[in-house]
């Protein structure tokens, strides 16, 4: 009924269609092949998130709704010889709701063989500019109180240096207890089950103060289970995040293609799951086997409809036509 009586609601639906069409067009123009990957999975992968579980009656087994747009499947396609793939599709995460988060939303992910994270952040930056210009006719936006110009230079920002700058804490030398004390002093809610979650909580506090656009690099290996280790520093990865309007609006990395390293990281994630971290990733033995056949150096990216909602300067829920609501009694 809102669409029937509200020109604004109709315009929003039309703009969102233009936005995703522009994203698709940019990828195809740059040689990416659009693919479809499974929504129901035996193991979840590609993100740190709690999945939805459902039952497959024909096979009589529980399966998970995917939490990424086919990350591990698209990497298999790189092993199979494809060179550039992307998918725009629905993903599902059984987590909290906020102005930035929903459980059921659209995401774009792409993978590019013989490229690295630097190639990918340049490509994705240009994709954002292309989609914004096509959809809104401008690169200047007001987002969460920040004046954001996507047309200006996007500087690089060091992950750990920014945390130290804003909090005074060096996460390389600080103990878990010191990080907990700092988070309590900053009045930030945090998950104390492992060091990676503490680092992430500190980072989320810091990023809300960054208007952007900036490209954050040099994220610790402990928080990046699928990213390739930097050849310059074994403690960090070749990963990037885009920070716009005080939030993460996209990320990517040079993909880990060493099966031994990947297996070790999956095992570390499984230990976290056994300690109660439901967002930690599961081991995917079939994916490890695929890596053993040989995946070329590959870069990937992922971003969601949160980008569109931020460009509209609206909560993400208000940019969906049919957000999930509890039924009336």
TrEMBL record:
Q: Name one GO cellular component term.
A: cytosol
Q: Which Pfam families match?
A: tRNA-synt_2
Task: List the InterPro entries.
Answer: Aa-tRNA-synt_II, aa-tRNA-synth_II, aa-tRNA-synth_II/BPL/LPL, Lys-tRNA-synth_II_C
List residues traversing the bilayer.
Answer: none
* Record key words, sorted: Aminoacyl-tRNA synthetase, ATP-binding, Coiled coil, Ligase, Nucleotide-binding
Superkingdom is Bacteria
What name is this protein filed under?
Answer: Lysyl-tRNA synthetase
């Amino acid at each position: 009924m809102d669409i029937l009586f509200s020109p604004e609601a109709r315009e929003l639906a039309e703009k969102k269609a233009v936005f995703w069409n522009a994203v698709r067009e940019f990828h195809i123009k740059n040689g990416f092949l659009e693919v479809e990957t499974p929504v129901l999975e035996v193991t979840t992968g590609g993100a740190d998130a709690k999945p939805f579980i459902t039952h497959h009656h024909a096979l009589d087994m529980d399966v998970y709704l995917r939490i990424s747009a086919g990350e591990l499947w698209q990497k298999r396609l790189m092993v199979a010889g494809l060179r550039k793939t992307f998918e725009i599709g629905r993903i599902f995460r059984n987590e909290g709701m906020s102005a930035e988060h929903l459980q059921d939303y659209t995401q774009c992910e792409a993978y590019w063989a013989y490229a690295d994270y630097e190639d990918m952040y340049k490509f994705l930056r240009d994709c954002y500019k292309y989609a914004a210009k096509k959809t809104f006719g401008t690169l200047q936006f007001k987002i969460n109180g920040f004046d954001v110009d996507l047309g200006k230079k996007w500087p690089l920002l060091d992950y750990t240096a920014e945390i130290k700058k804003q909090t005074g804490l060096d996460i390389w030398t600080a103990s878990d207890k010191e990080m907990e004390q700092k988070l309590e002093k900053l009045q930030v809610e945090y998950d104390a089950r492992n060091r990676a979650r503490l680092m992430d909580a500190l980072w989320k506090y810091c990023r809300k103060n960054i208007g952007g656009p900036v490209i954050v690099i040099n994220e610790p290996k402990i928080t990046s289970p699928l990213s390739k280790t930097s050849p310059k520093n074994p403690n960090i990865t070749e990963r990037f995040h885009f920070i716009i309007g005080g939030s993460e609006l996209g990320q990517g990395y040079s993909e880990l293609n060493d099966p031994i390293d990947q297996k070790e990281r999956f095992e570390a994630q499984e230990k976290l799951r056994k300690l109660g971290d439901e967002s930690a990733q599961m081991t995917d033995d079939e994916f490890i086997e695929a890596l053993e056949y040989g995946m070329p150096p590959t870069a990937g990216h992922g971003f969601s409809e949160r980008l569109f909602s931020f460009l509209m300067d609206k909560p993400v829920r208000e940019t969906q036509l049919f957000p999930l609501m509890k039924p009336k009694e």
